[in-house]
Fold this protein.
Amino acid sequence: MMGGGKKNKPAKKPKRGKKGEDDTVMFSEVCAEIPSVVGGAAKGISIHSNFVTVLHLANEKGLRFVKEGEDFKIYKEVTA
């Protein structure tokens, strides 16, 4: 049996922003969810690596960042 027979846990979706902002997530929420997705490997992941990774995904997926205090709101820009 390949992979040692372990089943991967399904990734939890990050908690969403305020009501009516279902496509919005805060960067701090994404960072808080990383340990539940990658487990113990999260100890070696810096906030800088998190940001670069999210920035890369934002570029690929057309996401936008809006600074809110010390955090960033991340959302997909709706184009008409």
